[in-house]
């Protein structure tokens, strides 16, 4: 499938280079392809040497770590566009945090009838154990990775709110370092807003949500271990913040207090930036077969003696079945009109929606409500008749498990691929931090679908990444 | 710092040091095998190499007879031999990987780069390069790791536990090299300076980078007891047991905790005995017995350090 009409980040319909790309386009046109190829090879070698890799699940040998392909052509966002985006993101994440607090306390939004109660309370991500539990600053999703796409004539849409353990920020930071190393002179042509204070902002955010009464909190990053696919990022963030990288086995709970085992004896832990799903946190409370967690952690958490970041039960708010209600949350909690748009979404649990979806499968993208990583979805226009019919059966059997959206003509950005420089579809994941204040560094992770025509940007599905330049005004 | 982190750092350093020492031991044999010797002598020498590492039994399970090629294959490439150079470099890298956030990026890149190169190293490349060049490469990478460790790491606990790993491993290896070669070159009853071959002793010295050092320190003929003195008791010789124990004791004091007093005392006691020891007494009582007791004490220190610092402390009721 090739989408014919899409927004090209670099040039307009008439083929003219957009103003914010003009200097770059000149530079690129003077750059021989061999030189680009050489720079890309240099980048690959450096990423390998630095070990900036992800492990593919199930492959244990150290030799099977892969690189996420890095594209050397940046995605450029003008200052005014970013200004609007950033305001929209802050607004949205504020509303999401208010929503999570509400549904574990008064449930005002449900009583007001804005969201069907059973869709929230029967959601697999809704954690009853969190009802009535007070968390620091009433904040749940301290770190949010919101997926943004650009469609139509260039309008921005929110595709997904990732509020559990969103990853990718390390690539945002490493991509910038790489670009500055490969093309130092380009950075003198452009005033690119820096992103490198993200680790400081993250640490400040985590410290600001420490349990009440703790003045000098000990923060740790909790990883499932060295074989996790995002381990590089866990280690990277711990190192950049100067905090310990712990595994479940390094911690224990005594008298509702969490400690880590150190060479100088037990040391108190106050804030855990956990990069591990709810289910694996505490074998006593969730999955008893989990060897990754800490027995008694939930009890300590409920007692308010430790902060988990993000909070247990945040996932309910980024569920695809809740997503259609986020604009309503903005209006309900903040009394504001949403700055960022949602993609129109059909909820297959509703009869009329399902009928429409079944009639238009060939044009729609159908996603599993709880799915992630680009698995278990149907991209209608890119599928064969047989694939569509097979999916139809699955959908009819369990309509409540699916939502459908129009196939968005994702914007495309010039990318250096086998055939030379050619447009490829992209998305954007900025990272929003909520603590004492709600803030984000200018930029995010731009993911790019490297296969021609492909709209799937996930690294597990052949996606790559680009540096994201937000220009300073 | 986390006990688990300290454990990984300690083993990262031990495995890197072990890779270097395996290369050194193989190198000395390789050099000796280029000198005129009988088939029996040659087999003895390669057999002794396996004995140094305590790997005779696993070797014989896998190979019919002791030949230079078989021993080299077993000690360099064999994935079933935990002490093969390949496995040591892999283990060093795996331990580094587990705590890469604690390492400086230079140290991580050095350790990772060493493994990536070793991983892709084929037998053909080994044949082309030649054994000596390969051993030089291993030593060079180990020197590089150590230099990067000292040159870039904050002088905190991370560095201390890394150094503890290096020196405990080195003490163990130096003691083993000396013991086996001493027995081989100077069989019981033989008088010093008799049949002992100058080249053999000089090869032994070279294997621990001590040939020039010997010349400088003694300015005299190479004699077995001086070689033993240099490798055991000279504190100024970087690979001697005395030096290693001084480093172990110093680093141990820096990381002391509530339960490590006895370990510190034992390390200090051993360090003092080496510092004030006399080679004549050691040779008179039998060098082999001395080294056997020494190895046991080094191992005891390793176990105690693991108990005091590295293994999760029992504070958990779960």
UniProtKB/TrEMBL annotation, chain A:
<protein>
    <submittedName>
        <fullName>Circularly permuted type 2 ATP-grasp protein</fullName>
    </submittedName>
</protein>
<dbReference type="InterPro" id="IPR025841">
    <property type="entry name" value="CP_ATPgrasp_2"/>
</dbReference>
<dbReference type="InterPro" id="IPR016450">
    <property type="entry name" value="UCP005522"/>
</dbReference>
<dbReference type="InterPro" id="IPR051680">
    <property type="entry name" value="ATP-dep_Glu-Cys_Ligase-2"/>
</dbReference>
<dbReference type="Pfam" id="PF14403">
    <property type="entry name" value="CP_ATPgrasp_2"/>
</dbReference>
<feature type="domain" description="Circularly permuted ATP-grasp type 2">
    <location>
        <begin position="74"/>
        <end position="449"/>
    </location>
</feature>
TrEMBL record, chain B:
<protein>
    <submittedName>
        <fullName>Alpha-E domain-containing protein</fullName>
    </submittedName>
</protein>
<feature type="domain" description="DUF403">
    <location>
        <begin position="1"/>
        <end position="310"/>
    </location>
</feature>
<dbReference type="Pfam" id="PF04168">
    <property type="entry name" value="Alpha-E"/>
</dbReference>
<dbReference type="InterPro" id="IPR051680">
    <property type="entry name" value="ATP-dep_Glu-Cys_Ligase-2"/>
</dbReference>
<dbReference type="InterPro" id="IPR007296">
    <property type="entry name" value="DUF403"/>
</dbReference>
